[in-house]
Design brief:
By secondary structure, the chain is mainly β. Helix content is about 5%, strand content about 40%. It is elongated. It starts with a strand and ends with a strand.
């Protein structure tokens, strides 16, 4: 039934027409023609003109190659009707329907044979205009197999996703009832069509009503079919250089459009877009071009490309008529040609257009005389040639995507002949077994597996073999090897078991086959009169371009074989089977929480979206992050500056602005830096301090002196600045200088966008997820519940779902019409641990992938045939939905196909769901290093490094300074009023005025210097007690303690090595009562010692800590002052910490001020020049150690050792530790951090430490 629906004002005219012709052809009698005709017409009474008719047409002609009986094939027939069933001996059964003329078919329906056990469960639909060159119906990029019936009575209807046009339909059963045999009744639905034949000479000229047209909008639609790969379909141009051309090039459709270019070449309007492939298949293809100004939709069949023309003009200026066909000799057929509302096909039929160039205008489509043969991997075709001939002459055309395959094989009278594709080249192999074996191998051509038709011509005779590809005689390959050939008379096409060729069988199409100069009669082959074939499809070429449309995203290159395609994603920034998944993180915030430091990174803010990755400078301190997208940032700013001399800016207060800028949405903005949207002012106008108070911008005063208006643009929805138009510069003496700073953005709202689901029935809903052929979903979750649905979206039968199925299993399930598919990943540890876990799922036409925490991954390939589109219609539910087990916990950063869903905003208005999620420190607190404290934030967390000697987002950045001669840092512990309290206890926290008597210290710092002697660190007191760490004249380290109880200060000569070698060294020293442990971490070895027992246990009334030099009143060690204090320490100190105090960091972060109140509030001060630098901690290259220096020999005068330092066994142990440390550092640099790598042994990055443990 063919249906066309239309209405005429209030009147409806409907004509219902049924026309049936049934034809049975058999060999039991010469010809049986059984015709059953019924004709109905119902007409609504009306005289409405013009009349719009709604026509319901039913028109059938069925040709049955089977038993000759007057069969009744229409569905819904009354009891007693039969159906079609072929003979059991028919090896290639099909039911053919002749619609009488070309029709558009939109639906088909089937039913089993009446009152029997015969029905068809699966079938294929072919269509043609002439009964030749059949084309299979395609859907989802595959030759489609329709599901049929499961009994004899039910009717199964299929609406065709893409309507087909043809006169003849052929139903080919693939599977049928296991209880009986093939049985079929059918119904077809559609409407009529008209066509124009182009012979390569004729042109239809469509003239405008006016000579010159200035067109802002175009809608062009047509359908065409051709067997040529070249030809112009439509062309129009104007005298100003505008043009529009639609043409075929190499069987692809090329649209070229130019809305205008200027004569200087600064504006180039030429734009070209290519679509489609294999369009010379002599089947109908529909084209639609929709243009509005510079925006164009270009649709070929069902694939639409959206693009914007080049240049700046938006009108198509045409003063010649557009033409259809003709140029470059387009040959083929067109129908339904519409140009801006005019039906050119109908105008040509009514002779309203100029068709004088046609020698014979025809409104019927001339058909090709080719008879293609389609081979699959198991096909075989045997054809006869001429036997016992001394010349082999073969011609045929082929097309394929496979680079390898055997096309032809023949057993000669005394040898074999093979023609095969080898890596895209055509090769011919003769193996002649005369008196001696003679083998001839020649090849020609390249890239012949491009899907295009290629012609092969082979002539072999005595002493000569010539191979010609595509008629190019100049590049024909010849050989003059002497051979004697006798043909065997039989040729095998597509594959042969007796072949010695290692290549696989040919998959593709052949046509125009001439064997020994005889044209193969494929009609006779089809009737079984000539030749033998198996699994060959005759009179059709079912080639599919699997790279069109290109499923390889983001510029990925598509490669294909006959059965499959693959994507090459090199240099795209994306990965996966279809180059869908970005290789980079979405923001600097994401890199930050992977533990990365400030550096330049590639980011991809929209993931799998259209925005390409780009490089940014990430400042991980949280100050600013430079990015070029603002939607997800928490704050953005961009500096603009306009320096002027007699050049007005905004022409304030009432004038029209001379200068404006264009932002993100291509909108003009008339405010300047320091102001805001809608306020036509500059920064000085907001602050009311402009040079001339009558104006709101300095430049608007129009002074002859240079002025400037500058400030920050902070309204992020308008940023970045893409263009600036400067207007007032054309007067004599006018000058202006424009400066646009980089866009700087901070934070990533999307990364922390979260919602908390507090009840099992709570959920958030969003619009339907659009992920037909490619879908990716990623999010973080944390929960203490053992199960729950993360999200779900439903269709009629299609669905997609992500779920926590058990405490250790996450599943990803979906159905695109081929049945449910489920992927599951199993975690080795429970996932309901209230820690953040990341889930990433992807489905495309190639595969489905599920990944958990970057550790667990499951992949499932898509079926080679079947549905590929995910069709959903319900809302997307995040959380519980439709009776599913609800999710309890937090979900954040939910991104679907590159778009982050705003969970927080939706949660604000949804019961049972709260915006945000607390407890980030539970998962991320471990990243706060070196004693940094994790601080919970609404949208994340931060590390508080206040009480550490480090800085940076994770308290891992060394803070140090370079000391010149005379530079010192003073840190005051004790005010004058606090000396009375003398409670003694060990302090692990910052000292206060009441905590000044110490029974223990923890000292840590790094240094590098080449100068000696020097004071590294000195702690004074209100008494005679002190602590000092100094470098002696020979560069060795000495620790000096005076705690009382001894006549002389207690000294420890830590090492005989020269530490003043310009290399960084780390000191870690601790004292608890009488136990002292010292670690000197260098890039050498690590002995360990025990200390003697002596001295008091308390450092009383701690007063001041000095770095670099001592400048103190009161009792001071005279030896220290005389030997070590002049000229002072010259070099680098880094990450200095004394108990809980970081004196050097405090000094660098609190510069000296002239305000007395501020000086009193800050306990630290310094003298001399202090420059921030981490040179005291950087790992530098170690020069070779002098052989004179023995790093293992220590002074035993004050230190007693019980370690066998010099024994080889101990050396081997230390060397093993060194290798372990080195390998650990190479594997993971984070593992080498002092706070992470074996603190007992005292390892530093790529270094070991000298450890001393003393008691006194």
């Amino acid at each position: 039934m063919f249906t066309c629906v239309s209405t005429c004002l209030p009147v409806f005219l409907h004509v219902y027409l049924c026309f049936y012709v049934f034809t049975c052809v058999s060999t039991c009698l010469p010809v049986f023609l059984c015709v059953y005709l019924c004709f109905y017409m119902f007409t609504c009474v009306s005289t409405c003109l013009p009349v719009f008719l709604c026509v319901y047409l039913c028109f059938y002609m069925f040709t049955c190659v089977s038993t000759c009986l007057p069969v009744f094939l229409r569905v819904y027939l009354s009891p007693g009707a039969g159906g079609w069933s072929p003979q059991d001996s028919d090896s290639y059964p099909w039911l053919q329907v002749d619609l009488g003329s070309r029709k558009q078919v939109v639906a088909v329906a089937t039913q089993g044979r009446y009152s029997s056990s015969d029905w068809t469960t699966r079938y294929r639909l072919l269509y043609s205009d002439t009964g030749r060159n059949w084309k299979p119906y395609h859907q989802d990029g595959n030759i489609w197999a329709f599901s049929g019936n499961s009994n004899t009575e039910s009717v199964v209807r299929h609406d065709l996703a893409q309507g087909i046009v043809g006169r003849l339909l052929r139903f080919v059963p693939l599977d049928w009832s296991g209880e009986g045999r093939i049985g079929l009744r059918i119904e077809v639905y559609g409407c009529s069509y008209y066509v124009i034949n182009f012979d390569g000479q004729g042109v239809i000229s469509y003239r405008f009503k006016v000579k010159k047209m200035k067109i802002i909008k175009d809608v062009i639609a047509l359908k065409f079919k051709t067997w040529d790969s070249e030809g112009v379909i439509l062309h129009g141009e104007g005298q100003q250089g505008d043009y529009i051309t639609l043409e075929l090039r190499k069987a692809k459709l090329l649209l070229q459009i130019n809305l205008g270019s200027n004569q200087y070449g600064s504006i180039l309007g030429h734009t070209s877009v290519t679509s489609g492939s294999l369009l010379d298949d002599h089947h109908w293809h529909s084209v639609m071009i929709e243009r509005y100004r510079r925006n164009v939709n270009f649709t070929l069949d069902t694939h639409t490309q959206h693009f914007r023309t080049n240049g700046e003009f938006d009108h198509l200026d045409l003063d010649y008529e557009p033409m259809g066909g003709g140029m470059k000799n387009f040959r083929g057929c067109m129908e339904s040609i519409n140009y801006n509302g005019d039906n050119i096909t109908d105008l040509a039929r009514r002779k309203k257009l100029d068709t004088s160039s046609f020698r014979n205008l025809s409104f019927s489509c001339m058909e090709s005389h080719s008879f293609p043969v389609f081979f699959n991997a198991t096909s075989f075709l045997q054809l006869p040639g001429r036997a016992n001939q001394d010349v082999v002459s073969l011609r045929f055309q082929f097309r394929t995507w496979n680079a390898n395959g055997l096309l032809l094989f023949s057993n000669l009278d005394d040898g074999t002949l093979e023609i095969a594709l080898d890596d895209g080249k055509m090769g011919v192999h003769f193996n002649v077994t005369q008196t001696k074996n003679t083998r001839i191998a020649i090849s020609s051509g390249s890239g012949l597996n491009d899907g295009q038709w290629h012609a092969v011509h082979l002539v072999a005779k005595e002493n000569s073999v010539m191979l010609t590809i595509d008629g190019d005689e100049a590049s024909a390959v010849r050989t003059t090897t002497p051979i004697i050939i006798r043909t065997g008379g039989t040729y095998h096409l597509g594959g042969e078991e007796g072949s010695v060729c290692v290549c696989k069988s040919f998959q593709g199409c052949m046509q125009a086959i001439l064997l020994d100069d005889q044209l193969a009669d494929m009609h006779a082959v089809e009737k079984g009169i000539v030749g033998v074939f198996e699994n060959v499809s005759l009179d059709m070429c079912a080639i599919i371009d699997r790279c069109m449309p290109n499923h390889c995203e983001h510029g990925g290159r598509c490669k294909q074989t006959w059965d499959n395609f693959s994507c090459t994603c090199d240099r795209t920034g994306y990965t996966g089977a279809t180059c869908h998944t970005s290789l980079f993180e979405q923001s600097c915030e994401a890199y930050k929480h992977l533990g990365r430091s400030s550096d330049t990174y590639w980011i991809d803010p929209d993931g799998s979206g259209p925005l390409r990755p780009f490089k940014v400078n990430c400042n991980m301190t949280g100050v600013c992050v430079c990015v070029s997208i603002t939607t997800s940032a928490e704050h953005c700013q961009q500096q603009v500056s306009y320096a002027c001399r007699m050049s007005r800016l905004l022409n304030t207060p009432e004038g029209t602005p001379y200068t404006w800028w264009v932002g993100r949405s291509s909108e003009k903005h008339f405010y300047w830096g320091g102001s805001g949207p809608g306020i036509q002012k500059c920064s000085c106008g907001i602050d009311r301090n402009c040079t001339d108070p009558k104006y709101d911008c300095n430049c608007d005063a129009d002074h002859k002196q240079w002025r400037e208006d500058s400030g920050l643009l902070v309204y992020k929805d308008h940023l970045p600045v893409s263009q600036v138009a400067v207007g007032d510069t054309n007067r004599q003496g006018s000058e202006a200088k424009l400066t646009i700073g980089p866009l700087r953005c901070q934070g990533d709202h999307n990364y922390w966008n979260a919602a908390s689901f507090t009840t099992p029935s709570s959920y958030l809903h969003f619009s339907t997820f659009q992920g037909e052929t490619s879908a990716d979903i990623s999010f973080y979750f944390k929960t203490s519940a053992p199960y729950g649905v993360f999200l779900e979206n439903l269709g009629n039968t299609d669905f997609i779902r992500l779920e926590l199925k058990s405490p250790t299993v996450v599943s990803f399930s979906f159905d695109v019409g081929n049945g449910p598919v489920e992927l599951a990943v199993h975690s080795a540890t429970p996932l309901n641990d209230d820690q953040w876990h990341r889930v990433m799922a992807e489905r495309n036409v190639k595969e489905a992938v599920l990944q958990l925490d970057l550790n667990y991954r499951e992949t499932r390939p898509a079926p080679p045939q079947g549905h590929t589109r995910l069709e959903l219609f319900s809302q997307l539910y995040v959380g519980a939905a439709g009776g599913q087990r609800g999710f309890l916990g937090c979900i954040r950063s939910l991104r679907m196909n590159g778009v982050t869903l705003d969970l927080e905003e939706r949660a604000k208005v949804t019961p049972g769901v709260k915006p945000g999620c607390q407890g980030h420190c539970t998962s991320y607190g471990m990243y706060c290093r070196n004693g940094g404290k994790c601080v919970e934030k609404y949208n994340g967390y931060s590390c508080d490094c206040t009480a550490t000697a480090y800085d940076g987002p994770f308290c891992t950045k060394d803070v140090g300074g370079f000391f010149e001669a005379g530079t010192l840092v003073r840190y005051n512990f004790l005010s004058e009023a606090a000396a009375a309290n003398q409670d003694a206890r060990f302090l692990a926290q910052p000292l206060t005025a009441q905590e000044v008597n110490l029974t223990g210290e923890a000292v840590a710092f790094s240094f590098s210097t080449s100068n000696t002697p020097a004071i590294l660190l000195y702690v004074s007191s209100k008494t005679q007690d002190y602590l000092g760490l100094v470098l002696r004249q020979n560069g060795t380290l000495q620790v000096r303690y005076n705690l009382g109880g001894l006549k002389e200060p207690f000294t420890i000569d830590v090492d005989q090595r020269n530490l003043a070698n310009g290399q960084p060294h780390t000191i870690n020293m601790s004292r608890i009562n009488r136990t002292i442990t010292i670690q000197v971490c260098t890039h050498t070895h690590t002995p360990s010692l025990r200390r003697p027992k002596a001295s008091d246990t308390q450092l009383n009334l701690v007063k001041t800590l000095f770095l670099g030099k001592v400048f103190e009143t009161g009792v001071i060690d005279p030896v220290l002052i005389e030997r070590y204090n002049t000229p002072g320490f010259v070099g680098c100190l880094s990450r200095v910490q004394f108990n809980g105090v970081a004196p050097l960091k405090t000094a660098l972060r609190n510069p000296i001020t002239d305000r007395p109140t501020e000086r009193q509030s800050v306990p630290v001060s310094y003298q001399g020049k202090l420059v921030e630098s981490n040179c005291g901690a950087s790992p530098l290259t170690i020069p070779p150690m002098s052989a004179v220096t023995d790093p293992w020999r220590l002074d035993s005068g004050t230190i007693h050792t019980d370690m066998f330092i010099c024994q080889p066994l101990y050396f081997l142990f230390l060397f093993s530790l060194f290798l372990f440390s080195l390998s650990s550092c190479l594997i993971s640099p984070d593992f080498c951090h002092p706070s992470q790598v074996f603190p007992v042994l005292g390892f530093e990055p790529l270094s070991l430490c000298l450890s001393l443990s003393l008691s006194h």
